[in-house]
Model the fold of this input.
Amino acid sequence: MGQRPNVLTPDQSPQHRLGYVIRELREARGLSMRELAAKTFVSHSKVQRWENGDRPPKDLAEVELIDQALGAGGFLIELWRGIGQDVSEPGHVSDARFHVSDTPTELVTALSQGAASDGEGIFIPRRLDDGTVVLVALNRRALLRAGAGIGAAAMAGFPMPASAAVAEDPFGFAPSVSESWPGLRLSRPDPAFGVDWHALLPGGRSMLGSQLSLQVHPARIEGRRVIVSLPDQRRAEEFLARPHRGLLVGAVATGGATRFFALDGRAARTKITRVGGVCEVAAPTAYELDDLTYGILWAVSNYDDALQADDQALAETRSDLKAYERLSASAVSREAAPGLNTVAHMWLGSDFCARHILRALPELPALPSFWTREQRGEEASAWLIFDHKFPYLRETTKALGSTSTRAFCIPEDIVRSSPRYERILLFLAVALMESLGIHAQFTSDPAYETVEGFVVAPDREAVIANWVRGDGMWHVDVTARSSAVREFTIAARDVDADSITAAPTPAGRLRALAQYLDLPWSWLIERCGQLARYGSSGLVQSRSRLVSAAGIDAACQYVGSLPTDR
Done:
């Protein structure tokens, strides 16, 4: 291996210390400079300047991005804030000049004494997001990684008390969930005020992200129930009484691994019981955290929080835009509702398009075919969660009086780039349609990606209704224009003739879809059946009146009833 181009002396300046640690963490993560540049949306040369100490990150947003990309748990932010500060300030180590105010005192002392005995300098321990303890040596190029924070440090001759390594996360919650869902960001509140973790759920192309507060407690399994023990009843009750979105997590150690089960804070409030002097809360084992339950938590929390935030403004805007309902065609820009967030724009567009189709459907001269533009779980989960979507599907089925078809275009690269929990949400949205007698059809041909959402009476008339990935909030029309009708008719017939999920039964079509989305069929049936027995409201409860769990529960109920064989 070649030499690294620039030898930094961490005690030369605060920005050199920051650059030094960025480089050490990057290399410990196995990232090249170009890979870190891609993760932080900057140039390779800019990463070089960070690491060389020539030019530190320009602002807090930039250093937060670096900290997140390297899983540094806020350490890089602390170093960045120390640039320009007097190194003699309290809370700094005078020789090393690292801020260690939140590092356990006994651990710093032990490491400093161990390092001083062989002239190696002072090692500063930091816990990364995945639970790894990193020991940064200031005067030699070393980074000792100890998975649980014990083994490697002891081998290096530094006495590390086991309690220091595991006290912050005795159940290994952070490394477990960070490995399963890398986009999830966990942080320790300081002061805690009864909260063990803050969890920042990632956003998406339109979703804005959502925050949860968590308490994690030991638990045991009894049949189909997980019993969560609450050693400090007052602390738990105060946590559950707050109006924020809270999650009570039970940790069950089984066979050398730990399983985690989640219960919505509001659902848990009324379930606390006292058994033999010990406070407990029971939850179904169906609420185990996996890609199914995480996906539901992710989608409901994102949509619910964003719609609740804009509730009054959204209601007023919907009333203001009601005049468009008198028109057979309209294309409304997002500028018509400039104060609303992107999720509120989505809801308005979806709601308007649904009502537009229901108005136009009875006038169509023949049984129509539907085309929808959803490709990812983020978009498709609106069918499961927006309050008007499930009723809309039932009303269209009733209006038609027979089965109908609904086509999707989902290219293979979209499938490959979508996390598993999003693919599960897409699958559930399609299962909801199939449960109502709607035959879902799929093409993977990217040539159809730009086709607008439509309902077409083949060769005669079409209803355009598009709100997904459009330039505005919606575009609607009713047209007999031959070019448009021909385009939609050909698209619908092409997918009908060559659907990649073609099968004579709903179970067959859904099984083919699961295979295309790389989802295990038997597992889907088992887990959806488990969740359907209890409903999703105990896992996550909505606050917004525009969000409903009815679609999720109906989809899970249907999938859970399907046969595992062909």
